[in-house]
Amino acid sequence: MENSCLKRRGRIKTGAAFGMEKLGANTDSAVYVANVTDYTKANYTFNVLRDATPNHEFGGNWTVFQRRFYGSVDFNRSWAQHRDGFGNVRGEHWLGLEKLKFLLNSGRHELLVVLEDFDGVIAYAKYDDFVVGSEAENYTLKSLGNDGLLDP
Questions:
Q1: pTM for this structure?
Q2: Are the CB atoms for 134 and 141 separated by under 8 Å?
Q3: For residue 71, what is the DSSP state?
Q4: Among 10, 24, 109, 135, which has the highest number of CB atoms less than 10 A from its own CB?
Q5: 3-state secondary structure of 16
Q6: Which domain of life is it from (predicted)?
Q7: How many CB atoms lie within 10 A of CB 64?
């Protein structure tokens, strides 16, 4: 299984520049509607998966922007598909570079990468300042901050 998650430092409040509204059952990990209003569009909404599990003692409340576990979704896609996203947020998916950029523009964010092989061996890395450029900059990685690869 492979997950890439981001976490905003501090609490995310509904109704602020970046808000979340829960969809579905009353569980900790669920699909939420992200409402981003602080970038180039006045009101941009999309679904995101929020992971509330402890994530190797890094805590919950992570937004999952890439999720793969069985290879049921082909990630060999066009530029436009990587920009816009594909798959289903309840399963394997890539949220999309533009949506990721919208989320990151709402404030400082952490990045947690969790990799698990088919034998259950887990590796992870955590960074404290995840920033990517705009589409005009090809969503270039601008910063990861500190921390990095951690022992499993």
A1: 0.79
A2: no
A3: -
A4: 109
A5: coil
A6: Eukaryota
A7: 20
